[in-house]
Design goal:
The protein has about 400 residues and is α/β, with parallel strands linked by helices. The chain has 2 domains: about 240 residues, 3-Layer(aba) Sandwich (Alkaline Phosphatase, subunit A), CATH 3.40.720.10; about 140 residues, no CATH class. The protein is about 35% helix and about 20% strand. The protein has 14 helices and 14 strands. An 8-stranded mixed β-sheet has the order 10-9-11-1-12-13-2-14, with helices on both faces. Strands 3, 4, 5, 6, 7 and 8 form a 6-stranded antiparallel β-sheet that branches.
Length: about 400
């Protein structure tokens, strides 16, 4: 019997409710120039009080030293081993599903950025200055009007949030084993789409033609004058959380990628607004309908990527002010963590362990006094893989039967 089969056999349906609150990119690091992390500096009295009544630890999203993308990091939080090849899902598919695009077998989806290049063709901003969503929508309409087909392949374009959009290639003999064109740095040219196997060569050629046509169409734009493509992928099949854990889960997330991951594992996607307050209200409005809620807060990650510790702290403090409204709902189990660390000094995702808090009436508690990296390192849970937190949640919620006689 595999570990997955064991969990499926032991899981049982109950009325107890679990909330997983994810502050994206939550973790930080200390440096000589800034010897305290954002969590240590933020004014978060409610989170600190809850920590003193909970059990703390740290989670590893993928493996020691492995920096995860947002997709595998969230799959891990939902109880799926991100290194398992059977649950590898590309970012393009996740973004497309998060935008409610209906993918067909054989479609190749890719997540795209509008970007800025200078007169020499070098990238000066991989996110086009984080253009507003309305500008993204205008540009996507422009591209759609100019690029409807490449050869016999249909091109479907849909705007996301800010600088993000999705392109789906629909046609025959397409495959998505293609490298990203985003070099993940500035001051260099974007990369060509390169196939990693013979089945993907045709799709890579079409992608490069799309990039050339898009750059030509956008050349007069001041900021969004180029495009980057990443996460070429096709739709896989992954067992749902309902199948694996007998849960009726729901997702509250404002950005498409996270709705996409949740959709792949069978969560119902609840309509919500872009503000954190709206997400918390959505949770309360649908409280009676589900037994597992994933509530995602994005901007802790965005500010980390921008190298803005003050902005990251501001979002933490906003969540702290809203926490009592969540506690008033009396969840049987509440978990608070991040999908990965995004330390502002690094301006990127990192491999560092992420603070984790688990609260229930039977979780026991440790001697920690605050919710931050230092206190979580002292917590009784120790440092565990993030895909194990679902097991802890199920146990604390009384959703796991005893193993063996």
């Amino acid at each position: 019997m595999t570990h997955t089969e064991l969990l499926q056999r032991l899981s049982q349906k109950t009325d107890s409710k679990i909330v997983l609150l994810v502050m994206d990119g939550l973790g930080g690091i200390r440096t000589r120039e800034r010897p305290k992390t954002e969590l240590e500096l933020a004014k978060i009295p409610n989170l600190n009080k809850l920590a003193s009544e909970s059990v703390l630890g740290r989670i590893i999203p993928a493996s020691w030293g492995i920096t995860p993308g947002s997709g595998p990091a969230h799959f891990s939080l939902f109880g799926y081993d991100p290194i398992d090849s059977n649950i590898q899902v590309g970012r393009g598919v996740l973004e497309a599903l998060g935008l409610d695009m209906k993918l067909q077998p054989g479609d190749v989806a890719t997540r795209c950025n509008f970007a800025t290049i200078d007169s020499k063709g070098l990238l000066s901003d991989r996110r086009a200055g984080r253009i507003p969503t309305e500008e993204c929508e205008r540009l996507c309409e422009l591209l759609t009007s100019k690029i409807k087909k490449i050869d016999d392949v249909k091109v479907i374009i849909k705007a996301g949030e800010q600088y993000r959009f999705v392109v789906v290639f629909r046609g025959k003999r397409l495959s998505g084993n293609i490298n990203d064109t985003d070099p993940q740095t500035i001051g260099v040219k974007s990369l060509p789409a390169v196939a990693n196997d013979s089945a993907s060569k045709r799709t890579a050629k079409i992608a490069n033609q799309f990039i050339a046509k898009a750059n030509q169409t956008l050349k007069s734009e001041s900021r969004a004058n180029s495009v980057l493509m990443r996460g070429f992928s096709v739709l896989p099949h992954i067992p749902s959380m309902g199948e694996r854990f007998h849960l009726n889960p729901a997702c509250i997330a404002s950005f498409p990628l996270y709705r996409g991951v949740a959709s792949v594992v069978g969560m119902k996607i609840l309509s919500t607004g872009m503000e954190v307050e709206e997400e918390f209200k959505t949770l309360a409005d649908h409280w009676s309908e589900h037994d597992f809620f994933f509530l995602h807060v994005k901007k802790t990650d965005s500010y980390g990527e921008d190298g803005n510790p003050e902005g990251k702290m501001k979002i933490m403090e906003q969540v702290d002010r809203l926490l009592p409204s969540l506690l008033d709902l009396k969840p049987d189990v509440l978990m608070i963590t991040g999908d990965h660390a995004t330390p502002p000094p690094m301006r990127s995702h990192s491999w560092h362990p992420v603070p984790f808090l688990l609260h229930s009436t039977v979780c026991s508690f440790d001697d920690t006094t605050a919710f931050n990296e230092t206190e979580c390192a002292k917590g009784h849970l120790g440092t565990i893989p993030s895909h194990a937190i679902i097991e802890l949640a199920l146990a604390n919620a009384g959703k796991l039967k005893k193993f063996g006689a």
